[in-house]
Amino acid sequence: MTCIQLFLYVYISLYSLTDWLVLTTCQREFHIINKALNWTEAQTYCRQKFTDQATIENDEEISKYRDKTLADSWIGLLSKINWMWSDGLTGSGAEYRNWETSDDEPDFISASQYCVLIGDNGKWWDYDCKTEFPFICYKGKTYCVSF
């Protein structure tokens, strides 16, 4: 069943229950790329082959990564004064963070750590953007439709 078919089925089925409905269908697909690139190269790769670098909006998404990730990997979070997502995500989920607190992250060591890695434990830390690591991309969008 395609996203549109699923949407229409749920819409028709639920329309009589309420005059207003917020529906989320068709989650993003995450792809772990086992090619070591620096953060900027990883972002370019993700944007050319997928949608962008991974954004992580909640604990459930962390679990997806932990099940599949064996190595430290770049995600799409970076700092340009404030932390922001590579794809411009704002709103619900955009402020979610999962810092490695045992290492006092983020710590901006040597004022050169502005990009974020996720480890095999699901925790994040800032790191020098020029260092090469595998990375995580996503494809597609989360569709939210209001009626």
UniProtKB/TrEMBL annotation:
Positions of the C-type lectin domain: 30-138
Q: Enumerate the UniProt keywords alphabetically.
A: Disulfide bond, Signal
Does RNA-binding appear among the keywords?
no
Gene3D superfamilies to which the protein is assigned, alphabetical: Mannose-Binding Protein A, subunit A
Q: Could you say which residues form the signal peptide?
A: 1-18
At the top level, the lineage of the source is Eukaryota
Whether Endoplasmic reticulum counts among this entry's keywords is no
According to UniProt, the name of this protein is C-type lectin domain-containing protein
Which organism is the protein's source? Kryptolebias marmoratus
